[in-house]
């Protein structure tokens, strides 16, 4: 018998037909880990409580199933679509908690619109959504700081639930346990639950949160010392005993961190596995990397079991991004035979859920709560900034020079050239890098920039540049530029001459790891190995793929000084390199989005066929396969020199093309 009980702080969803049971689960994603304590089963008289943890992560302000950049509905994404699934998951279990794992404030035009409004009186729409659905607790991710600390504080001030993070501080103490944290490090949820016999039981659930310590580097220009970060493991070892001492029967870690090694040095970005190994933690919600777990997306390795859904033996989920999945951890708890006051986990199961059209997922209650912000965002996103004479797309941005990348670079250079006038750097060459941010990957076959020639609107701006990065200008040398391009070119697999239909891109790299620098000319030799790995580590110092690097028709001298305009996130990877690191010559706090908007308004008409400044070194008799978006066939002229041939369209809508080198 299923008892439908709503825990304190939760609300029933007033949705039609909410007695429907869960669809048959994918066996890859629905796994029972088994008894947590081996043969020590509880006596028949011992009460058993079943607790379900429902989790979202990396929502990125994707609330309603709508793509504001493309100005069309977007099925299968958004909190609005999985709200119905949340309701079903609650109905299936007698006792539930709903948690979010961070990166909720940034990532969509809706978020950018809200951040642009002065003196807003309504709650942030993400917080409104969380309040409406009755979230029990959330933690912070790195992108929640993208609009600054004060914006974050104001946004979460209207939350009707605890916001926790144990390693984000405003002031570091002499030890982690003495840090002055930005929000409480943890919360203890006191819940009256029902056991399997229908009796009321008291359960104290600890929820503790963690964010990537790299925030302090990534957001250095914006946060300006207002936020200090502690390593996740150091913070966990300090605060977990206190949470346990406060009486927590069960502890859930909200780790806005990827799944890394079980034995990890504190301070790394992906530390969820090592965190799970700490004895106080009973369950983990991971995130940040936008992957899914359990399932085939994460490889098995020591401490990581993607079949059984556990990290270091603890149940764990990673529920994708933008509302693509819902994470569910089921725990069965019984009174400990050694102490009637203690609970222990005797069984657990983990699964992921995905939005299903059969569930009629869009929540009317949520839609009503967000309707005014949705309408306002649509109106704002449709404002005209200017005109573009060519289509701006990212379908083939990693295979050939690209008009969208060139436009971004041109706007950056224009801004810096004016800022450098009259300074000691005024006569140096100015280059700019840019990346194809919306370019498939986990976002799906429609997640590509596709702006037709004609009106360039606000939504077009957010399409080609969706992030809140600040502009940063570095003083580099010709050798530094070559190294920068080597890192970008590491996204390509090594291709043997004469090879047929080899995959062009290394699947370990996201497409946005690629960067173009339109101001220089060069070729990429795919027959050579990559110098860097997917994490940016230098693995082959002797490797060299960039050939004939030149500037203004002459080979670029490795010692020649010049300026490179990039963004705060890309520049952060060079910070902390010591006295020999690059000099920052301009970090004026201007966001790249604003600079791009200003350039388009002032120019009025932008866009031109891209200058063919780079190409793959010819390899006669060699072909590669590249994967791109659903509507890419209309833009084959971008890669015409490689004689593209459509091979097939896969079930997810991606097009696979053969390119001749």
Distance between the termini: 64 Å
Sheet with the most strands, sense and barrel status: 8 strands, mixed
What percent strand?
Answer: 25-35%
How much is the average pLDDT? 90
How many DSSP H or I helices?
Answer: 14
* Secondary structure: helix percent: 10-25%
Which structural class matches the secondary elements? alpha/beta
> Globular, elongated, flat, extended or rod-shaped: what is the shape?
globular
Question: What Rg is obtained from the alpha carbons, in whole angstroms?
Answer: 26 Å
Number of separate strands: 37
Uncertain segments? 1-30, 32-40
Can you walk me through this structure?
This protein has 14 helices and 37 strands. It is an alpha/beta fold and about 650 residues long. A hairpin with a 5-residue loop joins strand 10 and strand 11. Helix 2 crosses helix 9 and helix 10 packs across helix 14. The longest helix has 18 residues. The N terminus is likely disordered.
Short description:
This protein is an alpha/beta fold.
Descriptive tags:
single chain; 661 residues; alpha/beta; 8-stranded mixed beta sheet; 7-stranded mixed beta sheet; 14 helices; 26% strand
Layout of secondary structure:
Elements: E1 30-32, E2 48-56, E3 66-67, E4 72-73, H1 79-92, E5 96-100, H2 109-116, H3 125-133, E6 137-139, H4 149-156, E7 163-164, E8 168-171, E9 180-181, E10 186-194, E11 200-210, H5 215-218, H6 220-223, E12 228-229, H7 232-245, E13 250-255, H8 272-276, E14 283-285, E15 292-293, E16 304-305, E17 310-311, E18 314-319, E19 326-336, E20 339-353, H9 364-381, E21 384-388, E22 392-393, H10 403-420, E23 430-432, E24 450-451, E25 454-457, H11 458-464, E26 471-477, H12 478-489, E27 502-503, E28 521-524, E29 546-551, E30 554-555, E31 561-567, H13 568-572, E32 583-586, H14 592-603, E33 605-606, E34 614-616, E35 623-628, E36 645-649, E37 655-660
Parallel strand pairs: 2-5, 5-6, 6-7, 11-13, 13-14, 14-18, 21-33, 23-31, 27-35, 28-34
Antiparallel strand pairs: 1-20, 2-19, 3-4, 8-9, 8-12, 10-11, 15-18, 16-17, 17-18, 19-20, 21-25, 22-24, 26-31, 26-32, 28-29, 29-30, 35-37, 36-37
Helix pairs in contact: 2-9, 3-9, 10-14
């Amino acid at each position: 018998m299923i008892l439908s009980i709503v825990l304190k702080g939760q609300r029933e969803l007033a949705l039609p037909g909410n007695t429907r049971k869960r669809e048959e689960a994918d066996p890859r994603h629905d796994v029972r880990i088994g008894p947590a304590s081996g043969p020590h089963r509880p006596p028949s008289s011992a009460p058993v409580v079943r607790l379900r943890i429902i989790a979202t992560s990396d929502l990125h302000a994707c609330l309603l199933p709508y793509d504001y950049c493309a100005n069309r509905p977007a099925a299968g994404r958004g909190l609005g679509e999985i709200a119905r699934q949340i309701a079903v998951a609650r109905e299936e279990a007698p006792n539930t908690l709903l948690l979010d794992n961070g990166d909720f404030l940034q990532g969509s035009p809706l978020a950018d619109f809200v951040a642009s409004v002065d003196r807003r009186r309504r709650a942030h729409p993400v917080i409104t959504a969380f309040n409406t659905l009755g979230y029990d607790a959330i933690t912070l991710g790195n992108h929640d700081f993208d609009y600054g600390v004060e914006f974050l504080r104001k946004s979460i001030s209207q939350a009707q639930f605890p916001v926790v993070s144990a390693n984000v501080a405003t002031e570091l103490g002499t030890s982690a346990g003495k840090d002055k944290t930005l929000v409480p490090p943890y919360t203890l949820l006191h819940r009256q639950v029902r056991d399997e016999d229908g009796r009321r039981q008291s359960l104290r659930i600890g929820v503790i949160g963690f964010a990537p310590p790299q925030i302090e580097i990534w957001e250095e220009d914006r946060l300006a010392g207002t936020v200090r970060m502690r390593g996740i493991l150091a913070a966990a070892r300090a605060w977990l005993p206190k949470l346990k001492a406060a009486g927590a029967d069960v502890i859930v870690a909200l780790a806005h961190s990827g799944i890394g090694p079980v034995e990890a040095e504190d301070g790394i970005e992906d530390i969820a596995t090592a965190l799970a190994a700490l004895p106080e933690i009973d369950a983990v919600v991971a995130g940040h990397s936008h992957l899914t777990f359990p399932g085939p997306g994460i490889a098995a390795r020591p401490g990581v079991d993607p079949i059984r859904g556990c990290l270091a033996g603890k149940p764990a989920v990673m529920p994708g991004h933008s509302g693509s999945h819902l994470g569910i951890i089921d725990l069965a708890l019984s009174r400990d035979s050694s102490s009637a006051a203690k609970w222990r986990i005797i069984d657990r199961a983990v699964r992921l859920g995905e939005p299903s059209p059969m569930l009629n997922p869009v929540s009317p209650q949520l839609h009503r709560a967000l309707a005014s912000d949705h309408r306002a965002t649509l109106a704002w996103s449709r404002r005209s900034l200017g005109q573009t004479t060519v289509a701006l797309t990212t379908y083939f941005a990693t295979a050939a020079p690209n008009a969208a990348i060139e436009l971004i670079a041109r706007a950056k250079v224009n801004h810096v050239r004016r800022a450098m006038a009259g300074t000691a750097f005024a006569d140096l060459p100015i280059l700019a890098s840019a990346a194809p941010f919306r370019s498939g990957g986990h976002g799906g076959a429609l997640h590509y920039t596709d702006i037709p020639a004609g009106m360039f609107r606000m939504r077009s701006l957010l399409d080609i540049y969706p992030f809140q990065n600040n502009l940063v200008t570095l003083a580099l040398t010709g050798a530094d530029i070559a190294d920068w391009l080597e890192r970008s070119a590491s996204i390509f697999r090594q291709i043997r001459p004469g090879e047929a239909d080899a995959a062009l891109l290394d699947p370990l790299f996201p497409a946005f790891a690629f960067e173009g620098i339109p101001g220089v000319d060069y070729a990429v030799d795919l027959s050579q190995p990559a110098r860097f790995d997917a994490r940016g580590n230098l693995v082959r110092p002797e490797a060299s793929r960039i050939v004939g690097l030149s500037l203004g028709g002459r080979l670029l001298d490795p010692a020649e000084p010049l300026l490179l305009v990039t963004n705060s996130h890309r520049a952060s990877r060079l910070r902390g390199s010591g006295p020999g690191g690059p000099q920052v010559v301009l970090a004026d706090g201007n966001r790249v989005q604003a600079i791009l908007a200003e350039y388009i308004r002032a120019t009025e008409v932008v866009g031109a066929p891209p200058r063919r400044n780079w190409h793959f070194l010819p390899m006669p008799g060699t072909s590669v396969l590249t994967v791109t978006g659903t509507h890419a066939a209309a833009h084959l002229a971008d890669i015409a020199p490689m004689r593209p041939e459509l091979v097939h369209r896969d079930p997810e809508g991606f097009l696979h093309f053969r390119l001749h080198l």
